[in-house]
Amino acid sequence: MKPNVIMLRLGELTLKGKNRSRFEKVVFEQVKKAVLPYPKLTFVLEFGRIYIHLNEEPYEAIQACLKKVLGLASFSPVFTAPLELAAIQATSLAAMEGLEDEQAEFKVTVRRVNKSFLYDSQEMNKLVGGYVLKAMPTLKVNVNHPKVELKVELREKLAFIYSQNVKGMGGFPYGTNGKAMLMLSGGIDSPVAGFLALRQGLKLEAIHFHSYPFTSERSQQKVKELAGKLCGYAGEIKLHMVPLTSIQTRIHEVYREDLFITLLRRAMFRISEKLAEANGAMAIVTGESLGQVASQTLGSMNVIGRAIQLPIIQPLITTGKQEIIGIAETIDTFSISIQPYEDCCTLFMPPHPSTNPSLRIVESIEKSMVWLDAEVDEAVRLTEQLWIGAEDKQQFASLF
Ligand code: ATP
Ligand code: MG
């Protein structure tokens, strides 16, 4: 027997009132987008839950899509049965038969919504529990701390029966906490930072700085692939490709090798802030992790961050490399990130970058760089925008 309905539970159950219904609406839209390739599905939104009627569409493939929907706490494959005792018993057994642990402790919970049903919930607990135990004698009953809960909902027309609880992505529904710009390099960290920001309900546009022709087309391709992976959670992402070569070359001519990275990164943030303002984003998200490299010491980050007014969100700031790699593997960006490529920041990279630059000195050097504002504006002007769709183009094709 196959499940014919999927019951979806939303996350952040503590949310109340207006926010809650707004969030429900967003999750519902995202769910529909995620399962777009399956046209026979039908949907019912009811008391904060979404029911998907499969209508013969494949459960396994659809559950893989659902696992990426942000804000979805969990879901259960549901077996339906007509409101007859024998059918409910047989279906309950079918719902338990896929169980991995045949010696699991379980209990049956029956909820009788349809009060005209012949047996009340207590009686049904026994009738269903007894039937399942007889067919699966290795199971044990534990009413207080069961490992598996077999739920039987006697609804108006049908019984809904389920025992499995599949964990969803959780977090906030897509975009419900506002919009930010993600500085997306081709490295390991920034895609992970982007994923965490998406999961926290931020809508993202991505910014990538390239030093073409010193950096290759291939390195830009890699960034598009990484953005594509993030689209698995976001649906689509606008990617801003910023040419950095000119400003980078001019900063290199300043002849303060130790401050090259500091000055360059301040320029990158200035450009990002302008792009954020032009696109209605209220923060910049980056993949810094404290102490990882010279530009990620507190001293450096302080001086770099002061170049702009917008908040800089660094989801990975206290996360260690191994943990970051773990997340990168889960979201399938790691193998792309470790492909060799030239980063814009490796061009003119000094051997001894400062780890504790002086804000006063940096600001006075910038005052002497009279061309700086014009270069920043020019980089913004020459920025190219492209839309990245989902990894599975087919899946989101109709949305473009
Ligand atoms: P990542 O693995 O994300 O590249 P990293 O450890 O290599 O990070 P840095 O190169 O110092 O660290 O970059 C710090 C952050 O600055 C990155 O996480 C990213 O958010 C941003 N960044 C760096 N290079 C670029 C780039 N070429 N385009 C866009 N953002 C960048
Ligand atoms: Mg990097």
Describe the protein in words:
It is built from 14 helices and 15 strands. It is an alpha/beta fold and 400 residues long. The chain has 2 domains: 5-167, VC0802-like (2-Layer Sandwich), CATH 3.30.2130.30; 179-399, Rossmann fold (3-Layer(aba) Sandwich). The strands form 2 sheets. Strands 1, 2, 3, 4, 5, 6, 7, 8 and 9 form a 9-stranded mixed beta sheet that branches. A 6-stranded mixed beta sheet has the order 14-13-10-11-12-15. Strand 7 and strand 8 form a beta hairpin. Helix 3 (85-97) packs across helix 4 (121-135) and helix 7 runs antiparallel to helix 8 (260-278). The model is unreliable at 391-400 (pLDDT under 50). Bound molecules: adenosine-5'-triphosphate and magnesium ion. Adenosine-5'-triphosphate binds at residues 183-185, 187-190, 207-209, 286-288, 292-293, 295-296, 343-345.
